[in-house]
């Protein structure tokens, strides 16, 4: 097995120069750097990661704490994180906090003890202990998908954050359904405490107001962000004396639950209930009818999180940033519209009374 000394001899430089090239601890002339990297490739030299971390105080690893990794949305975020991290020479250590504040605190501590250079976390609905730990230990961290610090509240954020827009796309779904003539539009919202839940409720109410429709608290139910909760919440809506004629589900898991509840009652979409969902997923266009949805830029969210973290590592004292990425409307047929010719288009202006 080749050693650093072998690389130095092949490149005609000192061992110290090889170390500086590999560990990026000191500027090296471009032709010298090229000679060292060529020697590394020719000899098949594999750097000792542990030794490198002792020299640089960096492990070139990132901790990723994301719940519900089996959820296609978070799986795509993970793919975005991994691709960007590998591109920049970083490995991942992954943990699932299960959206439980106590477990979240434990897994973040375990990742920290494994000397990751920084962390990317999708925080729980009660992230107080998480924020306290990261702040106390000055851990470089980025929050993704869910916002903990809200710049709009007047205070500068303490942590870098990246997420998709939530309120405006949800308002767009409500406006689309109202434009089709619906006057009783229900919302299956996510778990209370999540910023994503708050934002989608805000968007729902804005969409109703823009359409001149009153807010009826009976039409807003929480589905706990999972399929079982979505099924229960939809069943509650369908049990109302005057049930909704259209429904917005606030994530992909709750959409599945809503469809189960409708199937149990032999109700059809969109014949008995029009449906739009927040979160597109790979098989959404395989349902009959095909699901009209808001698509989040999940891979871009993951890649942006890595970029923010690496920027933080390079400049620890710079002001924290909150990045919001736009979503896209995927127009299919579960909303009650006819099949769109050609590529999927934006909301239809066709109006039908219900």
Overview in brief:
This protein has 354 residues and is α/β, with parallel strands linked by helices. It has 12 helices and 12 strands.
What's the mean pLDDT score? 88
Strand order of the largest sheet: 2-1-3-4-5-11
- Detail the poorly predicted runs: 344-354
Radius of gyration: 25 Å
Helix/strand structural class = alpha/beta
Distance between the termini: 75 Å
Largest sheet report: 6 strands, parallel
Helix share, percent = 40-55%
> Outline, from the CA principal axes?
elongated
DSSP summary: helix tally: 12
What's the helix-strand series? Answer: HHHHEHEHEHEEHEHEHEHEEHEE
Throw out a few tags for this protein.
354 residues; alpha/beta; 12 strands; 42% helix
Layout: helices, strands, pairs:
Layout: H1 4-11, H2 15-23, H3 30-43, H4 49-56, E1 61-65, H5 72-87, E2 91-95, H6 101-113, E3 118-121, H7 128-136, E4 141-144, E5 160-164, H8 167-179, E6 185-189, H9 195-210, E7 220-222, H10 227-238, E8 246-249, H11 252-264, E9 274-278, E10 292-295, H12 298-314, E11 322-325, E12 328-330
Helix pairs in contact: 1-2, 1-3, 5-12, 6-7, 8-9, 10-11
